[in-house]
Amino acid sequence: MDKIQKLALGSIFIGAVVFGLKYAAYYITGSIALYSDALESVINVVTAVAAFLAVRVSAAPADANHPYGHHKVEYFSAVLEGVLIIVAALAILRESYYGFLSPKMIDAPMEGLAINAIAGVINAFWSWVLINRGRRMRSPALVADGRHLFTDVMTSAGVLIGLLLVPFTGWHWLDSALAALVAVNILWSGWGLMKESIGGLMDEALPETTLSRVREIIAVNAQGAIEAHDLRTRHAGRMTFIDFHLVVPGQMSVTDAHDICDRLERALKEDVKDALITIHVEPDNKAKHAGIVVL
């Protein structure tokens, strides 16, 4: 089991602990806002399981049916997480609506809020771990899970601050209003998650800053060639796919052309982690006099 899988497995455990604490806070107080917070934690557990399964499958080596590997499965996990977030938000909106119709007094608010605060601190720490490690290891599933947890942290903080005002103001409707705000925030988070994951499934190109760096590396390390054109890039989970055409002098030997390709692959892989590079070598009569000029 690699580090990514261990982190994903840890998310399941953390999610279960946080859900237990948040449900206890809701049980003590009867607050709809705390119920909404606990419900989101159920989604955290489900999506943590999905993320674990996704990174486990994505780590499998390429096979005859999947010659490019299984990396894209992590995007499916992130899309599923977005869908579940939206379902949770709709359920919370339903509860907040009924809460508006018949508001009630919150019981033992301070004890419940203290328990919920502890859960929030745990979530904040684990969110930071997932986002930082996920970016370092280039795992969309871990980053998506971390961002979802961070959204949970922010909404939990808002709920705590709002509920602290209820005993002092006597505004019992504030409990339902906070639950509705939590739901809207969760909906926005779910939409952002799905949009980003669908971009990965649709083979979006690398960001422009990374593309510029790739072009620069090719230009500097392709000595002996004439030009490079038709550069194409895409992400698939942790993998980055780079392919382009390399134009060389027509009289150049296969060995010399292969040496240039090897040099380019080494340079690109030093800068772009987990890169899979395909270079199509062409003779000089195929030059387009466009694309990347070799320095």
Automatic annotation (TrEMBL):
GO terms for cellular component: plasma membrane. Residues 206-283 form the Cation efflux protein cytoplasmic domain. InterPro entries: Cation_efflux, Cation_efflux_CTD, Cation_efflux_CTD_sf, Cation_efflux_TM, Cation_efflux_TMD_sf, CDF_Transporter. GO terms for molecular function: cadmium ion transmembrane transporter activity; ferrous iron transmembrane transporter activity; zinc efflux antiporter activity. GO terms for biological process: intracellular zinc ion homeostasis. Keywords: Cell membrane, Membrane, Transmembrane, Transmembrane helix, Transport. It comes from the Bacteria. It is found in: Cell membrane. The chain crosses the membrane at residues 7-29, 41-61, 73-93, 113-131, 152-171, 177-194. Residues 11-202 form the Cation efflux protein transmembrane domain. Belongs to the cation diffusion facilitator (CDF) transporter (TC 2.A.4) family. PANTHER family: MITOCHONDRIAL METAL TRANSPORTER 1-RELATED. This is Protein p34.
